[in-house]
Amino acid sequence: MNLPSDAPEDKPDVLPPNAHHSPGVAVPGTIREQRVVLVVDLVESVRLMTNHEAQTVARWCEFVAWVRADLHRRCAGECVKSLGDGLLLVFETPHTAWQVARAMHERLLQTQWAVAPEQRLWLRMGLHQDWLYRHALDVFGTAPNLAARLCSLAGPGETVCSASVWDDLRELADTAADDLGRCWLKHLAQPVHAFRLRPQSMLLVQSPSPRLPVSDGQVLQPVLALTVSTWDLAPDDACRPWADWVLHRLAARMARVRELRVIDPLSCGPLGLGCTDPRLAMQQFKADYMLILHGQLGKGRLSLTAELRAGSEATTVLDVACQYPVEDALHPDSAMLTHLSEQVVRCMLQRSGRESARLPLHHLDSHALMLAGIAGLHGTGRAPFVRAREVFEHLVQRHPRLPAPRVWLSHWHVLSITRGVHERCAAVVDEADMLVRQALWDQPDCDQAWAARAFVQCHLQHDPEQARASVLHALQLSPSQVMAWTYRTTIDSLLGDTNSAYQAGQQALRLAPFGPMRYYQCCLAGHAALFDGRTLEAAQLLETSCALNPAHSPTLRMLVVAHHDLGNLARARTVMAQLRLLEPDLTVERYLSRSPGAHAQRARFAQVMAAVGLPRS
Questions:
Q1: Cβ–Cβ under 8 Å, residues 440 and 410
Q2: Given CB 3.0 to 4.6 Å as the disulfide criterion, which of 126, 222, 241, 269 pairs with 151?
Q3: How far apart are the C-alpha atoms of 442 and 96, rounded to whole Å?
Q4: ∠414-419-424 over CA atoms, to 5°?
Q5: CA angle 14, 89, 157 (to 5 degrees)
C-alpha cells in the first residue's frame, strides 16, 4: 500500500503535441521521418503474469507472431520492438495503422471465446502521427512518447488517437470516434486533443474486472440456485420429467450470463439436495438467490410461476407467471424460457448493481488508501493536504476505470484554490474538469461524479447555472448524495435562492452527522445561513466548523463577517489574525478573484473583511 518513491520527474515536453513538428535537427546515426506510431499495451499484464504466467506467455507469443505475419501479408507497417507486455509499430499512413489496430482487437475477440474471462488478453492502444528519429534498433522522439501517453487513456479493447490521426480518419464510413476533449497527460506542458476510435461494426470490449475478494465478488457475481416446488402433473408417468426438463433448460440459459454463477441443476433437482425449505436450501448452496419453480401441466399447455428469493431470510423479490403451449418448452428458442430468464436476470442484475455501487474500490488496501487521502484532504495540516493529491493520483493509475479516485482528485484541485494553496489558473481548471468528465465517461450515472462536476463548474468555471443543473442531476440519481447537498448550498446562494441554499445545508448536516467532512458541511451550511440573513445561526455553525478544523480558511473568512455583523468586533479581529497567519498573502483583491460568480453579497463580505483588517491589495 506504499506509494511510489518521490523520484524526480522528467522535464515536460514543451512542444505543441497536436501540431505536426518540423523535420527538426539532424542527429548522427538517425534518420528523421514522419510516421504514424501505434503503441500497444497488454491490459493488466502484471496480474496475468502473476496468476497465469505460462499460459499468458504462450498466448502472447502466439499473438505477436500473428501480428508480424499480418504485417508481412499487408506489406505495410513495421513492428519496431516487442516490450514484453506491449508492442511499438510504425506505419506510413493513419489508415493502415488503424486497420492493423482493428485487426489486432478483432483477432483477440475471435480467438479467446474458450478462454476463461480472467485469463483473456485485452489490448489498449495509442495512435499519433508526427516526426520521429529512426535508429537502427529503435525510434525516438515526441511521436512514440505521445502515442504511449494516449495509450494510457484507452480502456481495454480501445484505441485512442490524437487529432493529427483523426483528421485523416474522419472521412471513413466505417469508423466513428468519441471526442475526449483536451486531455492533460503526464509530463506534457500542454493538453492533447484526443479521440477514442471505434469501428461501427464492432462492439467495445470490456476486460474482466480485477480479481475481487470473495465477499466483494459475491456482490458483483451472485450465486443462483434453481429448484422445483410443487408440480401438479397429469397422472401418467410420461409427464413427470417436465419439471426437471424446465429446470435444466432454464439453468442452461442463465448460465450463459457472465455476471451470474448458476448452481449445477443436478445439484438442485431430484438427484441433488431435493430440499423444499428455501432458507435451508440457500444455506446449503451458499446461494445469494434461489429461483423456485411452480408448475401445472394440462390440456397441452404448461403454466409456470417462478418465485425469486434473496438474502438470509429468503425474502421474495420477484414473481413471474406465464402460460405457453407445451411445444414451446421443447423449442430451442422457447418464448416462455426467454421471457422468464429475462425477467429474473434483469431483477438480479439491478439488485446486484445497486449493491456493487456501494463498493468504493476493488481492493481493501485501495479503500484504506482512499480513506487516508480523504482524511488528508479534509485534515488540519498543509502537508497532509498536499500528500492527499499524491494518494489520489496513485489510485487513478491503479484503478483507471473507477470514478471515485478522479472525483476526489478533482475535489482536491478545487479546495487547493479556495484554501489559497494554489492560485486559480487555466491549467488547474482544465485538469479538474477533465477528471470529472473522465469519471463520467466510464460511469455516466455516477451521482458522486455529477456532484463533483457541479463543484468544478461553480468554483472554478464560475458557472452556477450549469452547476445547478449538474447538482440536481446528481440528486435525481441519488437523493441522499451528501456531497451534492453540500455543494448545492453555495450554488443556490450564488443564484439568489438563499432559502433553498439554507435548506440544502440543513439536509447535508442531517445526512452527515459525523465524519471527516463534518467541518466542511458546517462551513457551507454557515455560508448559506449568512446569505439567508440568519447571522446568529451562521456564527454558531461556523464556530463549530472552526473547532473541528481551525486551519480551514473559508470558515475563518465567513466567521469574521458573521461576528462583525453581530457586533462582536473583538472576536472578529481575533479570527482575522488567525486567518492572516494561515494565509499571509490574502487580500481583498485575491479573495474576490477566487469567488465564484459576482453575487452582491460577496462584495459586501470583502468590504467587511477590509474593515476588520484585511489588506485590499
A1: no
A2: 126
A3: 29
A4: 55
A5: 90
Instruction: State pLDDT tens for residues 184-240.
Output: 777 777 778 889 887 754 433 333 333 333 343 344 467 888 887 755 545 444 445
**Which ranges in 286-359 belong to alpha helices (H)?**
326-330, 335-356
Q: Report the amino acid identity of residue 227.
A: T
The three cell numbers locating residue 544: 463549530
Between CA 65 and CA 73 the distance in angstroms is 12
Per the listing, cell 487516508 goes with: 372
CATH superfamily of 517-617: Tetratricopeptide repeat domain (1.25.40.10)
Q: Give the CA distances from residue 48 to residues 39, 153, 215, 598, in Å, rounded to whole numbers and listed in that order.
A: 20, 21, 22, 54
Residue ranges per structural domain of the chain: 31-199, 214-356, 363-479, 517-617
* All three cell numbers of 514: 459525523
Amino acid at site 393: E
Could you tell me which residues are beta bridge partners of residue 197?
Answer: 159, 177
Pairing status of strand 301-310 against strand 289-298: antiparallel
Residue 405 to residues 6, 370, 436, Cα–Cα distance (Å): 20, 8, 10
Is the model more confident about 285 or about 364?
Answer: 285
Using an 8 Å Cβ cutoff, are 421 and 382 in contact? yes
CA dist 589 and 384 (Å) reads 28
pLDDT band at 40 (very low <50, low <70, confident <90, very high): very high
- Note the helical H segments in 79-161: 94-111, 142-151
- Numbers of helices and strands, H then E, in the chain: 25, 13
Among 228-232, 245-249, 438-442, 445-449, the range scoring the smallest mean pLDDT is 228-232
3-state secondary structure 366-403: HHHHHHHHHHHHCCCCHHHHHHHHHHHHHHHHHCCCCH
- 418-431 residue pLDDT tens: 776 777 788 888 88
* Amino acid at the residue 200: Q
Average pLDDT in the chain: 79
Match domain 31-199 to its CATH number in 2.30.40.10, 3.30.70.1230, 3.30.70.360, 3.90.950.20: 3.30.70.1230
Report the distance separating Cα 571 and Cα 576, nearest Å: 9
Are 214-356 and 363-479 the same fold in CATH? no
Q: What is the DSSP letter of 125?
A: E
Q: Is the pLDDT of residue 367 over 90?
A: no
